[in-house]
Amino acid sequence: MCQEHKPIGNPSHFEGTEQEKTTAHAVDGTFAQYTQGMKFFDPHVHMTSRTTDDYQALADAGVVALIEPAFWLGQPRTGLASFKDYFASLVGWERFRSSQFGIKHYCTIGLNSREANHEALAEQVMEILPLFLQKEGVVGVGEIGFDDQTAAEEKYYRAQLELAKEMNLPVQVHTPHRDKKKGTERSMAIALEHGIAPNMVIIDHNNEETVKSVLDQGFYAAFTIYPFTKMGNERMVEIVKQYGPERIMVNSAADWGISDPLAIPKTAALMKIKEVPDEHIRLVTYQNALDAFAQSGQIQESDFINGLEIDQTQKFNGNTVLRGGQAPRVNKDSLIIR
Ligand SMILES: [Zn+2]
């Protein structure tokens, strides 16, 4: 199917309807009092779509590192150069922007499922992927997998699994919002068919329907906290209580749609309130994501555990995050949670 025929208003991470709205709001405005001293790792957040205010809020809330998966931009790209520039920005300008707020930025690189359906362009993208996958700070192939579960999506999912295997990189799998159970099972079966070890695969966007099978088969199970939709953080707390913390990780998947980049600290606060043990909170909001993606050999915890040095007077190719006349904020203390 051609991207142009997709309905509009159908972003990658927010597919909720009015009926699906739940009481997924976090502990509004007060979460920080429960997360004092905690550090967080968000393994799925599209910072390119977010503002410097978001970076500042993430840093203030204790997010010390994050992973930005390559995905689609809300509308289809029309040429290879757009992909190239986007991938380059994930390892370039965006990483720099993140560093200016003391947050270590990693990324995964891949051809997303929606744009896999534009086969002529997909072929060209496949050719440049190895180059970008070799770059420093690229911690996996992602986010790849199924959207509409078309033949073309399967073809490029398989091709990218092979790339991941060759390059010994973890795989970050986007599971479809429609027909999720089937799409998730299919994604796992195909990964196993390609001989990928399940512990090298992070199955994303899980829910109550998919989690058991994902964990039973040895995969990592990531959960995206969607505001007002299927996976609110109250349900997340129940899942951690039921399944324990092993191989489970929480992410925000914040992008250009309705989303909350502070989903992880807010969920941690809710877990704390609901008496989830501190160690379990640490595992699902920090350590498991670190362990999963550190299998790339590209993550050194010592690089960020005590915060990055922030110097907003630094430049990237002559550009800064400052505008004329702004005073730089050179302050490592901004990492302390208030
Ligand atoms: Zn995403």
Automatic annotation (TrEMBL):
Gene Ontology molecular-function annotations: hydrolase activity
Entry annotated with the keyword Methyltransferase: no
SUPFAM superfamilies assigned to the protein according to its UniProt record, in alphabetical order: Metallo-dependent hydrolases
Keywords: Hydrolase
Top-level lineage group: Bacteria
Stretches the record annotates as Disordered: 1-20
Name of one Pfam family that matches: TatD_DNase
Protein's recorded name: TatD family hydrolase
Source organism of the structure: Aquirufa regiilacus
Source lineage: Bacteria, Pseudomonadati, Bacteroidota, Cytophagia, Cytophagales
